[in-house]
Amino acid sequence: MLEFAALVPVEGEAVLRRMRPGIELLRASLHELNSPYAGVLDAVRRVLPPASVQELELARRIALSGPPQEQVGLEPFAPPEVMPAAEAAT
After folding, report:
1. How far, in Å, CA of 44 to CA of 5, rounded?
2. In the chain, domain spans
3. Tens of pLDDT along 10-20?
4. Is there a contact between 74 and 37 (Cβ–Cβ < 8 Å)?
């Protein structure tokens, strides 16, 4: 996302603004872990407009409820009960 934002600043900033709650949550988590990567998110935060109360509240709700449901999934694969046994494949 950051490379995209650097290459196309207007569209890139729009994407980063939409991802703001997640960015804030990740930034806080990295600081909590004393990660050296926290500074990267601090820099991103400095170039974006200040987070709104709604964005910060959404970040808090995500932190409390956990990550959203998987939206990509493994749709082309069958459930384990109908998959051939690993031994049969060898």
Report:
1. 10
2. 2-65
3. 999 999 999 99
4. no
